[in-house]
Write a structure and sequence with these properties.
106 residues; mainly beta; 6-stranded antiparallel sheet
Length: 106
């Protein structure tokens, strides 16, 4: 799969789906499927058997994957969703930057 515009640890804005308008931190990215798990977004109920972590078992709420096309990185300066570009910084390293403010994304 092609290089994605989001990485683990980014703050993202959900621009489509049931959780449209929410923001959250990216917990994991699956490049093969083009999906990401975002904190507090796309919560599903998972039925679990009793185990050492959850001895009672039952229904657990957890985040499910959301397609990266429905996510945009939040601008570190202006806030809100922004597009991502890539450019060489002063040290000659390719870095991501927010097109809205021009600020480099760490």
């Amino acid at each position: 799969m092609a290089k994605l515009h989001i990485k683990k640890g980014d703050m993202v804005f959900v621009n489509a789906g049931n959780d449209k308008g929410k923001t959250g931190k990216v917990l994991a990215v699956d490049t093969e499927k083009g999906r990401a798990i975002v904190e507090g977004v796309n919560m599903v109920s998972k039925h679990t058997k009793p185990n050492s972590k959850n001895p009672q078992g039952g229904i657990v709420k957890q985040e499910a994957g959301i397609h990266v096309s429905n996510l945009q990185v939040v601008d570190p300066v202006k806030g809100g969703a922004t597009k991502i570009g890539r450019r060489l910084n002063d040290k000659g390293k390719l870095v991501r930057y927010a097109k809205k403010s021009g600020e480099e994304i760490k």
